Amino acid sequence: MTELALERVVMEAALRLALQNEEFLVYYQPQVDVITNSLMGMEALVRCKHPIMINLEEAIVILNKISEIGIELAVDDFGTGYSSLSYLKKLPIDKLKIDQSFVKDLPADEFEVILRNGFSKLS
Asked: How far apart, in Å, are the Cα atoms of 119 and each of 20, 55, 99, 113?
């Protein structure tokens, strides 16, 4: 119990410092159902520009702790920059948002299969 309490205090202190140093960027965007073209909701994207994010192993530990306190995590624009399929096995993510470059040239019928069933069902 003492170890968990200490970890929580350390995490809270790190988050407070990150807030103080303005290491979080917040973006708001709509969630749209592309089949019906209707607004489903809104989401707030919080991006961290902390230096503790360059070291992948350390970032995984931190993201696991954040996930354990009930915050959902998503990978945005997967497939661009430094993203990799190997990260998916290591990161505690709840949602994967694939970059449009993966789907922009797909025929409409294949794109609809992806939207309804996910990539695993695509032949």
From this structure: 40, 29, 13, 8
**Residue 91, CB-side half-sphere exposure with 13 Å CA sphere:** 20
Q: Alpha-carbon distance 83 to 104, whole Å?
A: 19
Q: Is the pTM of this model over 0.85?
A: no
Print the domain residue range for 79. 72-123
With 70 as the cut, is the pLDDT of residue 2 above it? yes
Higher pLDDT, 106 or 5: 5
89 and 54 within one domain: no
- For the segment 64-103, what is each residue's pLDDT rounded down to a tens digit? 888 888 888 887 777 666 566 777 788 888 887 777 777 6
Please tell me the distance from the alpha carbon of residue 49 to that of residue 28, in angstroms, as a whole number.
Answer: 17
Do 27 and 35 touch, CB atoms closer than 8 A? no
Together in a domain, 77 and 50: no
Q: Please report whether residue 67 resides in a domain.
A: no
For 49, phi and psi rounded to 5 degrees?
A: -110, 40
Amino acid code (one letter) for 110: E
